[in-house]
Amino acid sequence: MKNAGLKAVIFGAVLNFTLAVVKLYIGISSNLLTIYCDAVNNLADNFSCVLAIGGFILVKKLGERQSERAQSLCTFVISAIVAVTGIYFVYNGLERFLYPTPVVYSVKYAVLIAVTVGVKIFMAVMYKAFNKHENSDVLRALVTDSILDCFITVAALMSLFLVSKLNYAVDGVFAVVTGGIITVSAIRSLIKEAKFLVL
Fold first, then answer.
1. pTM, entire model
2. Taking residues 166-193, what's their average pLDDT?
């Protein structure tokens, strides 16, 4: 991977960590499950970026075939992290039905969450732009993950509005639905990469 591409992934790791801190603050302050889970998701994304950085550094030292397998292994591990995050969403969403918690709505929280959606869109565009030159499975996985994160955060934003109008269980519904979507997408990627690694 070229130095510019490597810097993009490092920059992505910094952004993911920043997003995680912001969302964790909002999730704890508002008691909104979907935003709290989204913060955990961004922490997982941060780990994925760190893993990708290590993978790309390793790729430089390997041959073409070994490089493909190294990138596939990184993509496999990233997909596994995303799948676990999705299952975590579903579990916590179901738990919210049993133990509803009052949610604090704030325009400030809504604005901050909306800004994080824009940041994730920027990250997806950035990864995609670099991947035109790199043609990397890892970067493609990060593009897909960033797009999924946009939908997750939009869902979190919607639940922030709806929960204040309806009831606390709405938060759980959003967590279960988004978690299910994430898990299915990640499992598909896991199967694809597992086939490549085994063959």
1. 0.74
2. 80
At position 175, the amino acid (one-letter code) is A
Alpha-carbon dihedral angle through residues 159, 161, 162, 163, given to the nearest 10 degrees: 80
Nearest to 103 by CA among 168, 22, 154: 168
Angle between helices 64-98 and 33-59 (to 10 degrees): 170
Are 55 and 70 within 8 A, CB to CB? Answer: yes
Q: What pLDDT sits at residue 28?
A: 86
Position 57 scores a pLDDT of 72
pLDDT at 166 over 80: no
* Selected residue with higher pLDDT from 62 and 156: 156
Q: Give the whole-angstrom CA distance, residue 178 versus residue 11.
A: 26
What is the rounded distance in angstroms from the CA atom of residue 53 to the CA atom of residue 185?
Answer: 23
CB 156 within 8 A of CB 48: no
Q: State the SS3 of the chain.
A: CCHHHHHHHHHHHHHHHHHHHHHHHHHHHHCCHHHHHHHHHHHHHHHHHHHHHHHHHHHCCCCHHHHHHHHHHHHHHHHHHHHHHHHHHHHHHHHHHHCCCCCCCCHHHHHHHHHHHHHHHHHHHHHHHHHHHHCCHHHHHHHHHHHHHHHHHHHHHHHHHHHHHCCCHHHHHHHHHHHHHHHHHHHHHHHHHHHHHHC
Cα–Cα distance, 144 to 131 (Å, whole number)? 12
* Overall average pLDDT of the 73-85 stretch: 81
